[in-house]
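Support request, priority: normal
Reporter: lab tech (M.K.)
Component: structure prediction queue

Hi team, I submitted a job for RrF2 family transcriptional regulator from Paracoccus pacificus yesterday, and the status page still shows it as pending. I've pasted the exact input below so you can check whether something in the sequence is tripping the parser. The sequence length should be 153 residues. Please let me know if I need to resubmit or if it's stuck on your end.
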Amino acid sequence: MITQKMKYALKALIVLADEWAGEQRPLQIEEIARRSSTPKRFLEHILIEIRRAGIVASVRGRAGGYKLIRDPAKIMLSDLLRRIDGPIAPLPCLSRSAYQRCEDCADEASCRIRRVFADVFWSYLLLIESLNLADLARQPEVIDFDPKRAAGA
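Reply from support: The job had stalled in the queue. We restarted it manually and it finished. Here are the results:
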C-alpha cells in the first residue's frame, strides 16, 4: 500500500506532467496544491524531496514555481515509490534495495511464506517497473473498480 505522502507526490507530479506538453511554465505551489487537491503544507516538503531527486526544479522570482526537468516518460513509478516510501517489497528478504534476512527464517530457499509473496511481488514488480509518470498522467480519471466485487462479496 502506498502512503498518503506518495499519493500527494503523484498528484503533484501529474499536474506538472500536464504542463510538460505545453509551454512548461513554472507553477506556484498554491496552484499545484489547488489543481492536485493536496494540502500546501505537505506539498512544500514533498516538492523539496522531489527536487533533490532531480525530477523537478524550483524557479525563483515573480513568475517562479516548480516545473518538471525530466521527461515524464523517463520518470519511473518504481523509482518514485522507492524514493518517497522506501523499499516496496512485502518482505525484507525480497527487497532489491534494502535486502535483509528475516530474523525468524531458518532457510530462505524453503520458506513457504517467502515463496508465495515472491511470486506475487515479482508480478507486481514487473508491472510497476514498466510504468512511468507519462503512463499515469494518461490514465482516465474514472476507474471502474469495486473492491467488494473484486473480493467476491
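The mean pLDDT is 87. The two ends are 21 Å apart (CA to CA). Let us know if anything else looks off. Ticket resolved.
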